Amino acid sequence: MDPDEALDVIDATLRERGFREVGPGRADYEGAIRVHGAQVDVRLHIPDVRFIELPEVHLKDRSQVSPELLAHVETRTGICYASQTGLPIDMFEPGEAILLILSLASRTLETSYAGGALRDVIDEYQAYWREKGGVRFLAPLSQETEKLQLSKIELESGQPNFVVHTQGSLAHYKPVKLQDVTVRQSSTPLGPTQGVRVPSTLAELEQWYCQQVGLNGSGWPGVLRDLANQALVFFDAPNALIGASLCMPTEILAGVKKGSIRHSKLPQLVEARKATIAIDRYEGTRSDLDSITSRNIGMSSPILELDIALVGGGTIGGYLAKFIVQSGGGAKGRLRIYDDDILKEGNLGRHLLPYGFLGMNKAKALKAELERFHPDLEIEAVPKNALRDWTELRKFNLIVDATGDWNVQNALNAEFLNARGDTLSAMLHCWVFMNGAGAQSFLNLADDFACFRCLRPKLSGGWRYPAGDERDELNTVPATCGEGSYIPFSVDASVTAAALANKALLDWANGQPGPRLRSAITDHTRGRYQKYRSPEPSKHCPACAHQRGEGE
Ligand SMILES: [Zn+2]
Description:
The chain is α/β, with parallel strands linked by helices and 552 residues long. Helices cover 27% and strands 19% of the residues. The longest helix is centred in the N-terminal third of the chain and has 30 residues, at 94-123.
């Protein structure tokens, strides 16, 4: 619809509802919406008739609604009737769209009347509390939180970055310490108390603290001592992570510096002046590896504490390593990458690693690249052939084979079948099928299902569940003799193989391994569809048949 036409429709619709155009924009109106029968005057600002930016509904007079109802009213953007992306609006029906928005604004205010207001304030309490800048918590918060400190670290973005971390961590950065941090846990939500919406002085903070159900009121002397010693005190509750520190009077600071005021006297001194000593309020955001990696999984990541060895840091292994890190690998458990090859120009077109790592061992380069993901991440890089390190390898919980190399796949499979340790319980292979026709992942738990070799028991024979047409000549050219026999296929095939493996890994770690062999077509002309399945062992498998008491 033509924008002018849309504006005309909107104009007619709004006039019919008693709204009048007030400017200064082309579509700025004033009128009233009804909230439980009462009129509430609003200003309507429509920045874009395609609704890429949502129309804003502002209260004209805040005194028309009780202050407690202002939870969903922001000064800048008006009534929060919908999150920006959560509300589909039809740009081809602009009149109806505007009516929908007005009714949503009414409903939002009515919900507040319905008793949700205080609850909303509590839900958004952190936003009310915010005053000073934000602080990022790199240390996970728990009852036994260790000694914490607030530091400044340099980010590549150049943004100021204040982080709370445990002393001695952040090896890759040079943290500049600012102050100590202590944390008090509250099992119940924090919110406004009788007389104190958010505290501004030490006296108000004391009053606020002692009325919180979830905070230990008798713990106030400890909080006061920390504050007096210029620590930043944080309160960690289900609804908020908020903190405070004292704006210490300069004469006290000078006294401490000169030595005329002893540290032990500080709590007493500030207590005496608590009505006038102001506080700075901070908000914290969880930025620890656990929080970051668990967010997209919807629970604490099942692979946080697993020891994972990744064999192969090539095109599949590079992306897979990134996916594993983003899923929680290496956060608390070990993540080790094996590769004895170096990064060459020919790799760049389908590798995670950039130009700057040319000539560097792939395992070491991946370690350097991936550790940029988070200040607390540590990855082990082993620049040698994994099969020469089997004694070490079997100490991991899971081996992920991303070499895509038949000989390595087979050797790892045989080692795994013969020498499973107590810790090593799974082997996950993934590969690009036949030069980019498809991608597959296969999980071996050394149980009643097939082993890797069962998928192609005879080398001269075909795959039992091929993800591509094996008669296609392009599918059968070996790609091992350097650049001369380089087979082109695009990066998507490698990423698909890595994606299949990452999901299989998470499913297994979650206790629901699901189908062991997962296939995807990446080239629609050469690929062959295979449904997800858990293949039975092959009677002819040279690797596992004798163990199962079959064949000979
Ligand atoms: Zn087998």
